[in-house]
Amino acid sequence: MTAIPVAIAGLGAIGRVVARRLAAGIPGLRLSAIAARDRAKAQAWLDAERIAAPLIELDALPRHCDLAVECAPASVLEAICRPMLAAGKRVMVLSAGALLPRRDLIELAASGGGQIIVPTGALLGLDAVTAAAEGKIQSVRMITRKPPIGLEGAPYLVANDISVAGLNAAKRVFAGSAREAAKGFPANVNVVAALALAGIGPDQTEIEIWADPALTRPQLPHDRGRIGLGAAFVLD
Q: Above 50 in pLDDT, residue 224?
């Protein structure tokens, strides 16, 4: 079986884990290239890890791989996805929240024969949601609680002059649609974005976001009917 060439876009904390796993060997896959903003730093890390992979620019991704794994800030999602999708290739998007305001990328995948793969290990039962969406889902509502420090600086909090400093009790800081949440909390809503894309869409999927000082790490969203772990679905 011919191994699928995989490129990594972004070599931060997540990209490095993916690079190590691919370099160690995953059946059916091979590490073919890496795109990183700081090429000197990236090359030094690759040399230290003894990982052999060429460093390339984002627009060169389609020439080096059939699948690109996005491990970069949401601000460069366009530069990663557009060349790959225009070439009819696949992109695995970890920054799912950044997809909600970018319907054009989903349409490009549909028109050009490419695919956007949205994985999530934090939300269970995406396979069931996708299957249910073939019929009729009346409503979807998610509640997520996060440590205040993880919400500080979010555009929605800044625009509405909402402070999460010095909380003694949990505080609801947002209630609205997944699309609105993606604009106001771009670093915090990847899970609800994945749920919305798999289900009834970002405008019908609702979310509450709570800042909870009792937490030191984000709490998994409320979801009843936990079925599959590490689900993924494809937008094409």
A: no
